[in-house]
Specification:
The chain has 203 residues and is of the alpha/beta class. The protein has helices spanning 20-33, 81-86, 107-110, 118-129, 139-146, 152-162, 171-181, 184-195; strands at 7-15, 38-42, 52-60, 73-78, 91-100, 134-137. The protein has eight helices and six strands, in the order E-H-E-E-E-H-E-H-H-E-H-H-H-H.
């Protein structure tokens, strides 16, 4: 938790189309279900596919502003590994990172710009965050089991809850938020996405 043990500061990060905004709403609703005060702030104008999208979610009494200062976040939950790196300056010492291992290669990398070096990105995360504070979700295995990559955001939230990265918010809290938020058409899939992290291969 943050310096004040009554609050937890979390950054959710990804690219447009990965469901970062929905994930922040689910997390906020899960926290409110526990009676916790919640403040959120989201990027605006970057929702096109490929653009960076991130949300600040602050849980607890000691959250006077919706924005998290640099070096203050207790956790980063990233749906794309380069976006985890992009947000690292916000992570406090000893903070946790839960990230997908699946890259979303920017168009610039395919049109002569800097190459997207996934091994270097993952190595940097391991070095900067430390093994005990980094959880990497096997996105390909999750997709194979669920039959789709569309709920990777929910898979990551479940993994983060299991890793203790969401402060007081539990897996049961997230499941309640999913039931209250997600269309009945997709409810079973999203609940399966939360529970898939029970397998050791996802932690």
């Amino acid at each position: 938790m943050s310096e004040n043990a009554m609050s937890t500061d979390i950054i959710l990060a990804g690219v447009g189309g990965q469901g970062a905004v929905l994930a922040s709403k689910l997390l906020a609703r899960a926290a409110m279900g526990r009676g916790l005060p919640v403040k959120t702030a989201e990027t605006i104008g970057m929702a096109q596919r490929g653009g960076s999208v991130f949300s600040h979610v602050r849980l607890g009494e000691d959250s006077s502003s919706p924005l998290i200062g640099r070096g203050r976040a207790d956790a980063i939950v990233a749906f794309e590994p380069a976006e985890a790196v992009r947000q690292l300056s916000f992570l406090r010492p000893g903070g946790r990172v839960v990230t997908s291992d699946a890259p979303v290669v920017p168009v610039s990398a395919a049109t002569g710009g800097p190459a997207y070096d996934l091994p270097a990105i993952m190595s940097y995360l391991h070095e900067r965050v430390g093994e005990k504070n980094l959880a990497v979700v096997d996105a390909a295995a999750a997709e194979a089991e669920l039959g789709t990559a569309r709920v990777l955001n929910v898979v990551l939230l479940g993994a983060a809850a299991r890793a203790g990265a969401l402060g007081p918010v539990t897996l049961d809290d997230l499941a309640a938020a999913v039931r209250a938020t997600v269309s009945p058409r997709f409810l079973d899939l999203d609940l399966r996405a939360l529970s898939i992290g029970d397998s050791p291969q996802f932690t």
